[in-house]
Design brief:
243 residues; seven-stranded mixed beta sheet; 39% helix
Length: 243
């Protein structure tokens, strides 16, 4: 069986379900990670102060996307997955035709999709049409409300085909419930077990995204402890499907 996981950014699938991908690959499934926001801004292009500050925190400088692509390849190899990087820019780089930065603050990236971004959903949808019809397509629930997660989910749902959904980690920790109560009866959850070796691979897959650890944790040790705690609740990964 072929599984295709849609990752808004390079690290989202590794963070949310890295151990599951390892288990599936070990069981003989073909597993792929398609990163939607995998494009690089033009060399010497106009970056917002917000984007520049993130580059400094990541320690990547202007080579941020190149560094993150390399991290993603290392992460996918650890999970036993193949990879594909789309050319869409991360929201922190996207600009309106007049040059306005669409998402120039932390608040903006967790707000509403900018009207100038609506054609971007169509562009991502056109990329996703290439997914084989016999593949299982897994997309983010978009918990936390990040604009790139919402964009990815909307583009996937435009396909009109069955989808599985993964809770966006660590944003799911801030949710009282992964699925709102008013939707619950339309959804079904399935827990996919992850073994201790799978948990170890999960931590290693996330650690490969070294530039991103500081987004949520003080160091890789704290990250591994957090993922172990998350895994320990059900000793697996919960995916959701509409019934």
């Amino acid at each position: 069986m072929q599984w295709i996981y849609l990752s808004p950014h390079f690290d989202d699938v590794a963070l949310s379900c890295g151990g599951l991908l390892w288990e599936q690959a070990r069981s003989g499934h073909a597993v792929q990670v398609w990163t939607v926001c995998g494009g690089a801004p033009a060399e010497g292009g106009d970056l917002s102060e917000f984007a520049q500050a993130l580059h400094r925190r990541w320690g990547t400088g202007a080579e941020a996307v190149e560094s993150r692509r390399a991290e993603d390849i290392a992460s996918c190899l650890r999970m036993g997955a193949s990879w594909r990087h789309f050319n869409l820019l991360d929201c922190i780089y996207r600009q309106a035709p007049g040059g306005e930065h669409l998402y120039a603050s932390e608040q903006a990236i967790f707000g509403e999709l900018h009207p100038a971004d609506l054609p971007t959903i169509q562009a991502v949808h056109r990329e996703l049409v290439a997914a084989p019809l016999d593949a299982v397509l897994v997309c983010p629930l978009a918990l936390g409300g990040h604009v790139d997660h919402k964009l990815t989910r909307q583009a996937a749902e435009m396909l009109g085909r069955p989808l599985w959904y993964y809770p966006d980690y660590p944003y799911v920790l801030r949710q009282a419930e992964p699925i709102p109560a008013w939707e619950r009866e339309m959804w079904q959850a399935r827990v996919f077990p992850v073994s201790q070796p799978g948990l170890d691979a999960w931590g290693e897959a996330v650690a490969a995204h070294a530039s991103q650890i500081s987004t949520f944790w003080i160091d890789a040790e704290a990250m591994r402890a957090a993922i172990k705690e998350y895994w320990g609740e059900i000793r697996g990964v919960r995916l959701w499907v509409r019934t």
